[in-house]
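As a representative case, the lines below give one protein's residues and fold tokens.
***
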Amino acid sequence: MSRARESSKFAAAIAEANGAREAIYKDFYLPAVLALNDAGLPFMVGGAYAFEHFTGIERDLKDFDIFVKQADCQRVLDRLAAIGYQTEFTFPHWLGKAICGQHYIDVIFNSGNGTARVDDDWFKHAIVEDFFGLPIKLCPVEETLWSKAFVMERERYDGADVAHLFLACGDKLDWARVLQRFGPDWRVLLSHIILFGFAYPSERSRIPRWVTDDLLQKFRGETAAPSPSERVCQGTLLSREQYLTDLERWGYEDARLVPRGNLTKAEIEEWTAAIEKDKQSA
């Protein structure tokens, strides 16, 4: 086959794939956007759609993530149920779902570890995007980065997503707000910055020098001070499964648990019990 024919075939395949993606958005997700807009319910689009906007990286379209404030989650689910979606409040501390055949919408108001709760600042800094002629809001890149940084499960690690967000947006981020979002969890941010410099040696300057200096100064100050006396495992903020032994056998306290964290004992137990169920459905 000639190069011209190969190129034409490749272009046709891309066009077909793009057409299929557009059909999925129009058939399964556009009706939801229309319904929520008509009802005046505030929401933002995140997940694969927003990630592609920020980085240019395409993902599987089996799901569509929308982010809302917790007070609006049930109303959003009710509105989607009214137009034919099967809905459920999957985890009351962070997630609901609206299902249509093989496709579904995640309705998210927090992160699984309870850290990245959607608040007014998400909406204040949201990005307005055109969605088939409709204006929609995308989750801010800073909050997208913040929520992804804690996903470090055996079966899912979002470190490459964080690195790609640094690559695409590192020199444009509101870094003061990023630091504020991470707060006392700044070591998580520092770890991703260090790995970014490893993955992309030629792009290290995309992270402002003052950010790295600030974090390293905190690191030096903390390592010079005595270790805390409390035996707390903060690994549970990174993985709901991989640090269970620390809690169950070795006596460490769970950093997710109120008042130190944002989850109740019942919420943690429900989130933990779902591990096996999720493995079976994977």
Residues 3-38 form the longest helix (36 residues). The chain is about 50% helix and 15% strand.
